[in-house]
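Hey,
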Amino acid sequence: MGSELCIRDRANFREIPALSRPLVEKVMEDFTQCGIHGVLSIGHTGRPVCQTHVDMNKIGIILIGGLNPVAAVCEEGLTVDNKAMSTVMEYEKMRDIETL
């Protein structure tokens, strides 16, 4: 149950049209090659993912996103200065959270 809580508390749920799965998988592969690993789970057409209902002809995706990762850092006792959606940043200037 611990990992279930982690997924629920630290992730977002999205639905995509089932027909778009090949495109989404390609984008996920491109992101992975760039060092971005944000998808935790991808389901099957019309089937629940992590006990979350999925509509007919849709696929559920559990991913890291929003301010949940920032909240996790804050919960670990680190000071966080959040300016969500306030600017655009070049990818090369970003740092891995493990280095902080």
